[in-house]
Amino acid sequence: MSETKKSKKTRIGLVISNKMDKSAVVQTDQLIKHGLYGKYLRRRVKYMAHDPENICNIGDRVLIEECRPLSKQKRWRVREIIEKAV
């Protein structure tokens, strides 16, 4: 039997809240083209991400990855900070 390891989903987003202990709310934006009219629509999704060292600050651009459920709403983990806020 050959075991194939699935790659985890990753997203790049902006930290919009870090008021909780070991948690951050990350917002991701994406542009979707409407099928019929061709207009581009902006879709925004918020993810609760686990931040064990509390290193994320508001405005940081971070890379989050999918993980097992850590609480009722947290299913993502902060992998790295791509860009710190000014």
Descriptive report:
By secondary structure, this protein is mainly β. The protein is 0% helix and 53% strand. It has no helices and 5 strands. The chain has strands spanning 10-17, 23-33, 40-50, 61-66, 74-83. It has a 5-stranded mixed β-barrel with strand order 1-2-3-5-4. The radius of gyration is 15 Å and the shape is globular. The termini are far apart. 16% of the residues are buried. The model has no long low-confidence stretch (mean pLDDT 95).
N-to-C series of helices and strands: EEEEE
Strand order of the largest sheet: 1-2-3-5-4
Question: What portion of residues is helical?
Answer: under 10%
What is the C-alpha radius of gyration, as a whole number of Å? 15 Å
Poorly predicted tracts of residues = none
Overall pLDDT confidence: 95
Categorize the overall geometry: globular
Question: Could you describe the largest sheet, including whether it forms a barrel?
Answer: 5 strands, mixed, barrel
Strand content: over 45%
- Annotation, overall tally of beta strands: 5
- Secondary structure tally, helices: 0
Helix and strand content put the structural class at mainly beta
What is the terminal separation in angstroms? 51 Å
